[in-house]
Design goal:
The structure holds two protein chains of two kinds. Chain A is an alpha/beta fold. Chain A folds into five domains: 52 residues, no CATH class; 93 residues, Glutaredoxin; 214 residues, NADH-ubiquinone oxidoreductase 51kDa subunit (Rossmann fold); 71 residues, Ubiquitin-like (UB roll); 84 residues, NADH-ubiquinone oxidoreductase 51kDa subunit, iron-sulphur binding domain (de novo design (two linked rop proteins), Up-down Bundle). Chain A is built from 23 helices and 14 strands. In chain A, the strands form three sheets. Chain A has a six-stranded mixed β-sheet with strand order 5-11-10-14-12-13. In chain A, a hairpin with a 2-residue loop joins strand 3 and strand 4. Chain A is globular and about 90 Å long. Chain B is of the alpha/beta class. Chain B has one domain: Rossmann fold. Helix content of chain B is 33%, strand content 20%. Chain B has seven helices and seven strands. Chain B is elongated and about 55 Å long. The chains are: A alpha/beta, B alpha/beta. The complex binds flavin mononucleotide and iron/sulfur cluster (SF4) (2 copies).
Chain lengths: 589, 178
């Protein structure tokens, strides 16, 4: 078959574990090559991949890293996270380069826009340049970037050290402090057998580290017991919750443990295939991850007849996302794996009975799988000797914001918040967002609370806000995040998150009244109660938390009148005045 | 006993909501035992007097709509946004996908067969807002009567509830559209 215009395969990366024939990968390649998805390539691509045209079109529109019109040859996306973002740097650079945000400069050389948290909160401000991560930005670095853009120096020739991402592990615990010997979990599994290994995982008390905290052993058990043509293991490496970057270091420095956890799960549930869904923002790690998989194949820890066991086959493939927070939700993630937009499914049926390709599927967080590998080696007792009553083991935290040493910290469950603040050098703390925007905002009176599923749960995000921060501004940032990331499937969230955003904006800009606060509260309750998935159900949390714990943050901004219009009425007539050349009394409001 | 005074108006709407109001048919006769009309297209009274209930159909698309809505808000104890246009912008808000300039150019300059192309600028003509807005973005709205148009039964229900001094509430049958 003749090569389709633009449908170039991503040849440099083709490997047994990264497939060219996945729609997301092919669209990524097109976007890289042409800075957009050329309309002329869509039909051929759909035909080649045997997908309905409408599905390809829908996928292009769903993911924020794909564009219909050309971005610049250098496309810069500044993180807008409260920890790894600094939009003032973005605006300065726009001015320096003569770029309007989200519009490609006329010469096609550059475009500049925003991205939701890119997971560099311990080394921000950060941005993505054609998908590659640049951290620790300074005005000087941006000046250097601007010079290279104006000189048309391709990104590949920018200094390699600009793209360096540090691990910043500040405190080792149960998992990070225990050396994992490659292959040891699988050796242990083969010794014990699948059922005993499953019992061990159940006995360990391990609960999901991705946020929801479901018992990992029970999840594996349900999947193992479910009937299907095939079983699948999925590692959720989407890590999209703002302020979370702990999976990043597990993937960069402990990938063997993660892949081994997947393989172990495959052994226990009887799966022959596993997938890692890697967020697009972490694509820079893909070559190294593929190399690790290749090494594991050579070590007979992956592929057919693992460790010489004729009936133990397991393969791992990596699928890379394209900028959609919702794809971290397990059923949306599966939809994305199936080359569709990431719209959450109706549950039940849960993935353990009907997941990928409607087959029994375990979806686990990166950290959960790494923990499972350690448990296989050291036993459930080793694990649950640590932690609190209802939360066994340890939790790896991504600490960021106003503190002296942001980075990765591992603590046994049950550790107090104050202890964490002391360790990372955080003083004069006004509030902490535990668990990211979808989690809980806590005030100093609560700093003796504990890190635990039964008290303060977190998928890993721990964002600290010092006394100088404007908390309403922080919450406004989160409201914008959710409105942007809502998948649009259900009305309460699609419309509600935008109304919440508008409401917070109105108050933050000094146009809100008590009536607007009451409306915000009413809308927040409705969105929380009526939304289809976890995104909408948690999106109002920051607003409700701020209302409850820091009501002053709202009250200080309120106008004391019964009602304020939602927009500037007279300004709304400006365009008509211009078009009609009128400026009489009736032409004003 | 003093009758409850009701005013109605249509802003950027199609009068479909008013037609549906009239669809109350003979039930209107019974209602008239208890209510009387101030400003309304039914009687052609030009300005709203102090009223108990104001029913407003249509969205806000121009300066005059804003003046009328403000007059209603000032004079009506209870203001009800009637129909999809008043509540969400509805059909008129479809122009929000375009700039005002694009809309006016299409209608008055570029369209085939336009005679004497110019954008009307007589001071008698209210200026258009750059976007169409629902009522609650400009004044406080007390109740919303959904539908395009709301069925006659919905008008009966909300008005009788208010006459009886009850918090208005529409049963599911009236709110369920498919
Ligand atoms: C909006 C949303 C985003 C999510 N993002 C992630 C994510 O980035 N990583 C993750 O592991 N789990 C995420 N989850 C939770 C997953 O749905 C799922 O519960 C988890 O991957 C299960 O793995 P675990 O049991 O090991 O935690 C998200 C959930 C929601 C509702
Ligand atoms: S709650 Fe939001 S993200 Fe979830 S399905 Fe509904 S629209 Fe999509
Ligand atoms: S809601 Fe429907 S019936 Fe009522 S004015 Fe608007 S378009 Fe007409």
């Amino acid at each position: 078959m003749n090569s389709v215009q633009g449908a170039a395969p991503t040849s440099d990366l083709t490997s047994a574990s990264y497939h060219d024939d996945h729609l997301l990968h092919r669209l990524y390649a097109l976007q890289q090559q042409f800075q957009h998805i050329p309309a002329s390539s869509i039909g051929a691509l759909a035909a080649e991949l045997c997908l309905p045209l409408a599905q390809v079109e829908a996928v292009i529109d769903f993911y924020s890293f794909f564009h219909r019109t050309a971005r610049g040859r250098v496309d810069l996306l500044f993180s807008n996270c409260t920890s790894c973002g600094d939009l003032s740097l973005m605006h300065d650079l726009c001015q320096r380069l003569g770029v309007v945000p989200e519009q490609t400069r006329a010469d096609g050389a550059v475009s500049i826009g925003e991205a939701s948290c890119i997971g560099m909160c311990d080394q921000g401000p950060a941005l993505l340049a054609n998908g590659r991560t640049l951290t620790q930005l300074t005005p000087l670095r941006l000046e250097q970037i601007a010079e290279r853009i104006e000189a048309s120096t391709p990104i590949e020739q920018w200094p390699a050290e600009w793209f360096h991402v540090h691990d910043n592990v500040r405190k080792n615990g149960l998992l990070l402090g225990t050396t994992f010997s490659t292959g040891s979990a699988l050796v242990a599994a083969l010794e014990k057998g699948a059922q005993t290994m499953l019992d061990e995982i159940i006995a360990s008390g391990l609960r999901g580290r991705g946020g929801a905290g479901f018992s990992t052993g029970m999840k594996w058990k349900f999947c193992r017991e479910a009937t299907g043509d095939a079983h699948y293991v999925v590692c959720n490496a989407d890590e999209g919750e703002p302020g979370t970057f702990k999976d990043r270091i597990l993937l960069s420095s402990h990938a063997h443990a993660v892949f081994e956890g997947m393989t172990l799960c495959g052994y226990v549930i009887g799966a022959k295939k596993g997938y890692m869904y890697l967020r697009g923002e972490y694509r820079y790690m893909l070559p190294e991850l593929l190399a690790v998989l290749e090494r594991r194949r050579k070590l007979k820890l992956l592929g057919t007849a693992i460790l010489g066991q004729s009936d133990f086959d397991f393969e791992i493939e990596i699928i890379v996302g394209a900028g959609a927070y919702i794809c971290g939700e397990e059923s949306a993630l599966i939809e994305s794996m199936e080359q569709k937009g990431g719209v959450p499914r109706v549950r039940p049926p849960f993935p353990v009975t009907q997941g990928f390709l409607a087959q029994p599927t375990v979806v686990n967080n990166v950290e959960t799988l790494a923990a499972a590998a350690h448990i296989a080696v050291h036993g459930g007792g080793w694990f649950n000797a640590h932690g609190s009553d209802k939360s066994d083991g340890s939790k790896i935290l991504s600490v960021s914001g106003d503190c002296t040493t942001p980075g990765v910290y591992e603590y046994p469950f049950g550790t107090s918040i104050q202890r964490i603040l002391d360790d990372c050098g955080a003083e004069h703390v006004q509030a902490i967002q535990v668990g990211g925007p979808s989690g809980t905002l806590i005030a100093p009176a609560e700093f003796e609370r504990k890190l635990a599923f039964e008290d303060l749960a977190t998928g890993g995000s721990f964002m600290i806000y010092g006394a100088q921060r404007d908390l309403l501004h922080v919450i406004q940032n989160f409201a914008h995040f959710f409105a942007h990331e809502s998948c649009g499937f259900c009305t309460p969230c699609r419309v509600g998150t935008t109304l919440l955003k508008n409401g917070v904006d109105k108050i933050a800009t000094g146009h809100g009244t008590q009536y607007d606060v009451d409306e915000l509260r009413r809308m927040a309750a409705l969105v929380k109660r009526r939304s289809h998935c976890g995104l909408g159900q948690t999106a109002p949390n920051p607003i409700l938390d701020l209302l409850q714990r820091f009501p002053q943050a709202f009250e200080d901004r309120l106008v004391h009148s019964d009602f304020e219009p939602h927009f500037d009425l007279d300004k709304s007539l400006q365009e008509a005045r211009r078009l009609t050349h009128r400026d009489d009394a009736e032409a004003h409001l | 006993m003093r009758k409850v005074r009701v005013a109605t108006t249509s802003l950027a709407g199609c009068f479909g909501c008013h037609m549906s109001f009239l669809d109350m048919d003979e039930r209107l006769v019974g209602l008239l035992e208890h209510i009387e009309f101030s400003r309304s297209p039914i009687n052609d009274i030009k300005h709203c007097e102090p009223c108990d209930i104001g029913l407003v159909e249509g969205a806000l698309c121009n300066a005059d709509n804003v003046h009328v809505l403000r007059e209603f808000r000032q004079n009506c104890k209870i203001l009800i946004a009637v129909g999809a246009c008043a509540i969400n912008g509805g059909v008129p808000a479809m122009r929000n996908h375009f700039t005002l300039e694009e809309c006016l150019n299409e209608a008055f300059l570029d369209e085939i067969g336009v005679d004497n192309p110019h954008i009307p600028n007589d001071v008698e003509i209210p200026l258009l807002l750059s976007k169409v807005h629902p009522l609650h973005e400009v004044v406080h709205v007390d109740y919303y009567l959904p539908g395009c148009p709301p069925p006659a039964d919905a008008f009966v229900k909300i008005i009788t509830d208010l006459l009886e001094g009850k918090e208005p509430s529409l049963p599911r049958e009236i709110l369920h559209y498919d």
